[in-house]
Write a structure and sequence with these properties.
By secondary structure, the protein is α+β, with helices and mostly antiparallel strands. It is 28% helix and 28% strand. The strands form two sheets. Strands 8, 9, 10, 11, 12, 13, 14, 15 and 16 form a nine-stranded mixed β-sheet that branches. The protein is globular, with a radius of gyration of 19 Å. Bound molecules: 4'-deoxy-4'-aminopyridoxal-5'-phosphate.
Length: 305
């Protein structure tokens, strides 16, 4: 991975290599940590962070769900991210920001109430999550054997590190089978989400994406729904079965890192024409116009540093 000059840790800027933790940190053993994935793009007026407040608020809410008390307000953490980008003096087109909180050193055993909460904001330059070629031509997606855990035994709406064991196993299986990304069903057999992105499909001109009953409340998914509706596209949020997916006219994944990535094949079936679809391309180019500050209508989602 790329590195940068500084990482913000517990209120201080530290040199990249000095932001360390003890090997007996609680989260390393029991998996209670919360993360965000936020992105800044180099606009004509310098870097702008996309939907900064929404991401930081989700971090705070994930922590509340998993009973971690982050000792900083959303506003303080927003400011830390702005300052982090300023100090790091990035050059590239875009920067990925990873705010997170984890339980540090000092307590062993599952009961975590007395474990210290460590808060960190890191940022680095990161290329296209599913590859440059995937952004143009589409990727191969596999519905994997791993399903999202039932809501009775998991908190899928928390962006919690523990949830990514499920994602990791799913992604590994997909890649091992020659695909590029995993699509997970929920415990009822309906589409939940990809290992690190949300799922959309197009059928007869209608854009369809599942509700967040068993998936992260995605910020990009929300953005794409808003943008599509403003373009006059009919959007349905409903459960999607495996069969629906196979006969979709178009499909794509969305996420802060995945942005809008077209899907060309799902489980050996070509989707539509087996390339990036027309509506996908339109939404993709609009999304890039928005994040790069070229669309005035969505300027309120940008925080210029
Ligand atoms: N689902 C999962 C499991 C994810 O990790 C992500 C990436 N954060 C998403 C969906 C997309 O969320 P967002 O659009 O808020 O980045």
């Amino acid at each position: 991975m790329n590195s940068a000059k500084y990482i913000w840790m517990n209120g201080e800027f530290k040199a990249w290599n000095d932001a360390q933790t003890h090997v007996l940190s609680h989260t390393l053993h029991y998996g209670n940590g919360v993360i965000e994935g936020t992105k800044a793009y180099k606009t004509a007026k310098g870097y702008a962070i996309f939907r900064l407040n929404d991401h930081t608020k989700r971090l705070k809410e994930s922590a509340k769900m998993t009973l971690m008390d982050i000792p900083y307000s959303v506003e303080e953490m927003n400011q830390a991210q702005i300052e982090l980008l300023r100090r790091n003096e990035f050059q590239g087109d875009n920067v990925y920001i990873r705010p997170f909180a984890f339980l540090g050193y000092g307590v062993m055993g599952v009961y975590h109430k007395n474990a210290p909460v460590e808060t960190v904001m890191a940022a680095w330059e990161w290329g296209a999550y599913l590859g440059e070629e995937g952004m143009q031509k589409g990727i191969k997606l596999k519905i994997v054997s791993m399903t999202r855990p039932a809501n009775t035994s998991n908190m899928g709406k928390a962006k919690a590190t523990a949830n990514y064991l499920n994602s990791q196993m799913a992604k590994y299986e997909a890649i091992d089978c020659g695909y590029e990304e995993a699509l997970l069903l929920d415990d009822q057999g309906y589409v939940a989400e990809a290992s690190g992105a949300s799922f959309f499909m197009v059928k007869n001109g209608v854009l369809i994406t599942p509700p967040n009953d068993n998936s992260l409340e995605s910020i990009t998914q929300k953005t794409v729904i808003e943008v599509a509706q403003n373009m006059g596209i009919k959007v349905e949020r409903r459960r999607i079965s495996r069969e629906d997916v196979y006969v979709a006219d178009e499909a794509f994944l969305t996420g802060t890192a995945a942005e809008i990535t077209p899907v060309r094949i799902i489980d050996a079936r070509e989707i539509g024409c087996g390339a990036r679809g027309e509506m996908t391309e339109k939404l993709q180019s609009t999304y890039f116009d928005i994040v790069f500050g070229r669309n005035k209508e969505y300027e309120h989602y940008l925080t210029y540093i």
